[in-house]
Amino acid sequence: MKIIMDMFGGDNSPEAPLRGAALAASEYGVDILAVGDKAKMEQVCRDGKIDTSRFEFCDAPLVMPVCAEPTEAVKSYKDSSLTTSMRLLAEGRGDAMVGAGSTGAMVVAATLVAKRLHGIKRAALATVLPSLSGQYMLLDLGANVECRPEMLVQFGLMGSIYMDKVMGVKDPKVALINIGADETNGRELQVEAYRLMKTAPYDFIGNIEPRDLPIGGCDVAVADGWTGNVVLKLTEGLGSAFGKMFKAMLTKNAMTKLAALTLHGGINDFKKRLDYTEAGGAPLLGIAKPVIKAHGSSNAKAFKNAVRQAKAFVDGDVNGTIARALADMNTEEADE
Amino acid sequence: MKIIMDMFGGDNSPEAPLRGAALAASEYGVDILAVGDKAKMEQVCRDGKIDTSRFEFCDAPLVMPVCAEPTEAVKSYKDSSLTTSMRLLAEGRGDAMVGAGSTGAMVVAATLVAKRLHGIKRAALATVLPSLSGQYMLLDLGANVECRPEMLVQFGLMGSIYMDKVMGVKDPKVALINIGADETNGRELQVEAYRLMKTAPYDFIGNIEPRDLPIGGCDVAVADGWTGNVVLKLTEGLGSAFGKMFKAMLTKNAMTKLAALTLHGGINDFKKRLDYTEAGGAPLLGIAKPVIKAHGSSNAKAFKNAVRQAKAFVDGDVNGTIARALADMNTEEADE
């Protein structure tokens, strides 16, 4: 299996993605197609003693600026490392793509260059968040600020298949994020999406209120990109705020510092549950080939995990399963 | 000052609101107009030895069912304790109203019976949430699931005046909840609201991302009711989830239990910051007279605090200040 990597996205590029790719190559037995400024990549690998035995390099020296308007940027920077990575993916030069470029640019480049899966209306960015009873997948995280009900129905399908094939959750419970439990609650978008999701080919369990997301109760939480982004960012912000309050409490005086030592194991568990970099990156679902968006601040370990995730995305045949499910849905609709 | 109270809203009625009212009457020197089933209220006060020396009773034995559709319920239950309380408020029989009925019914009854402040497009439900650097007011919490930009501009005005006059925050910083920092981020609603808020007569500091809400950075966070409800409920849910994780960590074994004793003071601080019942209720801003919505699960202490809040709402002349600010805005618009 060959993973295409944009080595010039993210805050720590190119060293962190190169080092992460080398770790992943040796640990998971994958080949890497490293895209970016070739001379610079080779220099960094030499200086940093990064093993390139499973690397192939593709020279694309242009770097897309982070601040640019996504659609404009993708059109103006046709030869950037990001756009080139997507073109190589479309040409079948690799099985999946990993990058840490800006979210907007990755979504646009994936959609315009690598293209959507046949029948998918919009690609959705997803991530797995912790809950008291385990974890749940949240999507869309912001690729689509405005959504139509049919898009939410497809998000549920894609999330359900990903949780099954990659995360090993059998018959994932899919819920719609809403501000009430009743099917008449919410905006028009949610009311219509609820109606359509009732007959979708996955285990739709109805609405979930944001209060219940961190408690648990669903395996896939579906939202438009606006709402999903609010949920993701507030979860991150509150996690960080509670962590700081907790730390302040434990470092107050000598007695509390002693108590902190006793709690060491528990505190590490606590931290690990809040550490989203452990999970790898965010899958962009609905593109013709697997794409993983790594955090902008990813270190080598996070990139390694993102490659592991890309491999699982391919191994699980998530896209083939989505395509077959869509074909079945269309056949059923035609039969009705 | 006389506070009108619906004694038959909430899970613990009528005892908790009656007891809370008596505590408030003695502590803050206010009179109470107690609305509901008079015989039952008198019985509960006798049995529970509740001091009724500052109470006046108004008999309204009908209780509005919690599950009913709000607009239908208000129209069908014209003589319910809730609707009667709002009518008494409109008639000037009291200075403010406190109740713990269902949010939807309270908003509809307030709007239809007590009426909006002249010039206000929609009433908004608000609450104060904790942040690392202090606290911030969040509005709207769900009274208006769909909003127009001008409504958000008014929410900012009302929140700013409330924080100044009731919470004592001078020149409150007002921010718009958005999924990016730029004025072009968000849905059409946010882009247009941002443009209008730039010239509004308060200290508009631009967008705030949900990640930064619990950290601090604004005194008033403005959102449509959908988004505000998601932020409120997720904050509550994550607070509860972190509390449970924390408790599990501290009660793991004898050593951690010993550590918990050392942390006692810190843990109490932590709990208090998460205890929204301390704050009282949620002001419904934009109604002709002050209305406080108490939590459905309020106990006597929470009702006492809700009355304290209603008194501060009146004492601060929040409504008079809002009315004057609106008049100024209209004059300026006419001058342009």
Task: Describe the protein in words.
The structure is a homodimer of 336-residue chains. Chain A is an alpha/beta fold. Chain A has twelve helices and eleven strands. Chain A has an eleven-stranded mixed beta sheet with strand order 3-2-1-4-11-10-5-6-9-7-8, with helices on both faces. In chain A, strand 7, helix 7 and strand 8 form a beta-alpha-beta unit. In chain A, helix 1 crosses helix 11, helix 6 crosses helix 7 and helix 6 packs across helix 12. The two termini of chain A are 41 Å apart. In chain A, 54% of the residues are buried. The mean pLDDT of chain A is 92. At the A-B interface, helix 8, helix 9 and helix 10 of A face helix 8, helix 9 and helix 10 of B.
Blueprint of the fold:
Two copies of one chain form a homodimer.
Chain A: E1 2-6, H1 15-28, E2 31-36, H2 38-47, E3 55-59, H3 70-76, H4 81-90, E4 96-99, H5 103-114, E5 124-131, E6 134-139, H6 149-165, E7 173-177, H7 188-197, E8 203-208, E9 220-222, H8 225-250, H9 254-262, H10 264-274, E10 282-285, E11 291-293, H11 300-315, H12 318-335
Parallel strand pairs in A: 1-2, 1-4, 2-3, 4-11, 6-9, 7-8, 7-9
Antiparallel strand pairs in A: 5-6, 5-10, 10-11
Helix pairs in contact in A: 1-11, 3-5, 4-5, 6-7, 6-12
Compact summary:
The structure is a homodimer of 336-residue chains. With 336 residues, chain A is an alpha/beta fold. The first copy, chain A, contains 12 helices and 11 strands.
The count of DSSP E runs of length 2 or more, i.e. the number of strands of chain A, is 11
Low-confidence stretches of chain A: none
Largest interface: A-B, 49 and 50 residues
Structural class of chain A: alpha/beta
Gap from first CA to last CA of chain A? 41 Å
Oligomer: homodimer
List the total number of helices of chain A: 12
Helix proportion of residues of chain A, in percent?
Answer: 40-55%
Looking across the biggest beta sheet of chain A, what order are the strands in? 3-2-1-4-11-10-5-6-9-7-8
Tell me the β content of chain A. 15-25%
Instruction: Using the CA coordinates, give the radius of gyration of chain A.
Output: 21 Å
Order of helices and strands of chain A: EHEHEHHEHEEHEHEEHHHEEHH
Shape of chain A: globular
Overall residue-averaged pLDDT value of chain A:
92
User: Tell me about the biggest sheet of chain A?
Assistant: 11 strands, mixed
